[in-house]
């Protein structure tokens, strides 16, 4: 599977994120000859433990989430960031979680936007929106380098792409930038060869950063 | 959802059963070596306590894992008339650290078993799976190599077939019909309603063994 980096929009201090950023980003991709391939969508669910006695709080994770990825429709990915756990499962695992009734999805987010082909790269840019809301929570961007599956071997070319991207976007004078978070995938038991589990971990980390640093705004 | 029946057979007759199954199913038998871990939720977790099974297929070069949730059996007059149990069942393949994930989520190991034997998977109106296995328990946690049989000299026969709310009657009928062929060697009935061993199994087994399954029982 090709290596993928997941970046998120970090607005400058004092500014918020909006759909306008997404529009500028997609226009920027098109301005550097990105060929639109269509829409893409992913879903992320935050789970909360259901406790019979609310006054008794066992030591359970507060960062348990599940992700459905656009390019893996039959799979589902669980991440517990604090425990450095990522699990890949068939999509039917969601039915099992519903039957167990021990955890319920309390917050769900959509990632949706457009997908582009840019030479050997595939780029997706999308907004992050809570389900049943119009409030844009953030902007994410996936950059995939199609010829290579090795994280290490692709590092240089990915860094160069991101640099070119930053340069192209800087001409639009936007109040912020796309950020790539350096991750130690080894802590999650993941190897150098890229897998969808790597994507799951990236989304979990991106969301953690986004929640901590990005103020929501109406789209 | 699945249709399921179970039975027990003396180990000495398992070879005859295998010959019979080989003739009936028309497919190659598969080895079965599964480590089954049953996890239960912590006392305060969930609106009701919950249980989930993790199955590790040890027969592969790289063990593969499945999560399985078995729900309640169908009840009522319709269900009572069926000779098979129809119950909710959902399975999902998972990556190898699913056990660690469930431990983190507040599930504890309730018990674990090792099932070793063989299985046949074939199509006969429904997709039917028949497994014959010796079930062992572990004296120490995860000590597969030290497993001891729960019922020495006896093995469990499981017949299952996936079903849906729309087709479970047909699937149940297919399973029942197939089980009749196994009746000379093993009584198959709804789980938890044991019919014991077949008293004439020895004669049936001898007949099968003497001509390699050519005899019609």
Automatic annotation (TrEMBL), chain A:
Q: Enumerate the UniProt keywords alphabetically.
A: Activator, Nucleus, Transcription, Transcription regulation
> Which Pfam families does this UniProt record tie to the protein?
Med20 (PF08612)
The answer to whether UniProt assigns keyword Transcription regulation to this entry is yes
Q: InterPro entries given for it? A: Mediator_Med20
- Gene Ontology cellular-component terms listed: nucleus; protein-containing complex
Its localization reads: Nucleus
Give the function comment from the record: Component of the Mediator complex, a coactivator involved in the regulated transcription of nearly all RNA polymerase II-dependent genes. Mediator functions as a bridge to convey information from gene-specific regulatory proteins to the basal RNA polymerase II transcription machinery. Mediator is recruited to promoters by direct interactions with regulatory proteins and serves as a scaffold for the assembly of a functional preinitiation complex with RNA polymerase II and the general transcription factors.
Its assembly, as annotated, is: Component of the Mediator complex.
The similarity comment for this entry is:
Belongs to the Mediator complex subunit 20 family.
Cite the PANTHER family for this sequence: MEDIATOR OF RNA POLYMERASE II TRANSCRIPTION SUBUNIT 20, UBIQUITIN SPECIFIC PROTEASE HOMOLOG 49
Q: What is this protein called?
A: Mediator of RNA polymerase II transcription subunit 20
Native source species: Eruca vesicaria subsp. sativa
Q: What is the lineage of its organism?
A: Eukaryota, Viridiplantae, Streptophyta, Embryophyta, Tracheophyta
Encoding gene (name): MED20
From TrEMBL, chain B:
Cellular localization per UniProt: Nucleus
Gene3D superfamilies xref list = Hypothetical Protein Pfu-838710-001
InterPro entries xref list: Mediator_Med18 (IPR019095)
Predominant subcellular localization, coarse grouping: nucleus
GO CC, sorted alphabetically, is:
nucleus
Isomerase as a keyword of this entry, yes or no, is no
Keyword set for this entry?
Nucleus, Transcription, Transcription regulation
**PANTHER family, per database record:** MEDIATOR OF RNA POLYMERASE II TRANSCRIPTION SUBUNIT 18 (PTHR13321:SF2), MEDIATOR OF RNA POLYMERASE II TRANSCRIPTION, SUBUNIT 18 (PTHR13321)
Family membership: Belongs to the Mediator complex subunit 18 family.
- Stated name of the protein: Mediator of RNA polymerase II transcription subunit 18
Q: Which organism is it from?
A: Eruca vesicaria subsp. sativa (Garden rocket)
Q: What is the lineage of its organism?
A: Eukaryota, Viridiplantae, Streptophyta, Embryophyta, Tracheophyta
